[in-house]
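Project outcomes to date are best conveyed with an example. Our students and postdoctoral researchers have been running inverse folding experiments weekly, and each run begins with a structure described purely in tokens. The record below, which covers 133 residues, was selected by the lab manager from last quarter's runs and is presented without edits.
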């Protein structure tokens, strides 16, 4: 299997501790900065689109198999596949964002809880209507 980043996140979030648990919990606007060799792939992204951004959570602990959801010690241990924990065997992040602006190879998005420098592995526009397919 081969996986390569297509972009990187530019965000004011610098440390994991600063990042909200979910994007809709106060995540800031951020930029996705794409590599020039994938420019054609982003040609139809438009402001106002909702998109799913898949990231590689490169600072995750890949040995973690169970967590206490939301780091709450009163909650029972839960397998990571039933949670949104960034720590997991294959730390793929899934983020629903709103495209706010497209400027060349840069796409400004809202509600992205990924920290600065996080590799982006794919972007998929959200399909809301059958005609979107």
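After processing, the design step wrote out the following sequence:
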């Amino acid at each position: 299997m081969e996986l390569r980043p297509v972009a990187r996140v530019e965000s004011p979030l610098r440390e994991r501790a600063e990042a909200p648990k979910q994007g809709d919990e106060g995540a800031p606007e951020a930029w996705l900065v794409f590599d020039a060799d994938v420019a054609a792939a982003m040609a139809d992204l438009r402001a106002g689109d909702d998109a799913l951004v898949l990231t590689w959570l490169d600072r995750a602990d890949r040995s973690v198999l169970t967590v206490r959801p939301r780091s709450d010690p009163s909650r029972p241990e839960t397998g990571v596949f039933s949670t949104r924990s960034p720590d997991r065997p294959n730390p793929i992040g899934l983020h629903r964002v709103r495209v706010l602006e497209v400027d060349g190879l840069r796409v400004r998005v809202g509600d992205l809880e990924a920290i600065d420098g996080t590799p982006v592995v794919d972007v998929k526009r959200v399909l809301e209507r059958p005609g979107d397919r």
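Residues 58 and 118 are 7 Å apart (CA to CA). The chain has a mean pLDDT of 90. The training component of this project remains on track.
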